[in-house]
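User: New here, any thoughts?
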Amino acid sequence: MPICGIATGRHGEPVTEQVLAGMLAALYPEPGETGRRGGGPDAGFAASSSTGTASIFASDMLLVACDADILNREQLRGALECPVAVESDAALLAALYLEQGMAFLPRLRGVFSVAIRDRRSRTLFLAIDRFAVKPLSYADCGN
């Protein structure tokens, strides 16, 4: 089953390569799935999908991992105040979040699960579509 994830340390603590490797192992339960990983000193993330709908985005401000099939992608892209070339659904969601905060969520049409790590406020936002078609799980693994 395709899933996406973000691994982040508490209070800006670093995420080790060992933690990322463990997360990737959990994200690749089926042969033939593809994935990407990235991050920075305070967080790491990975995306996995057998359907090719998973994407990731990273900047100094945000980490976004999503598994999405957004039906109104072009409408949302055209409504951006500062139109930018967005190469993936994760990049589009990042641009929408930076402009509108979480207020963009009700405008999404389609199926999705998304995790947004806002490095500025040190918060993690998780969201799924109205029918929970794309799975999303959260785990607090202690220390």
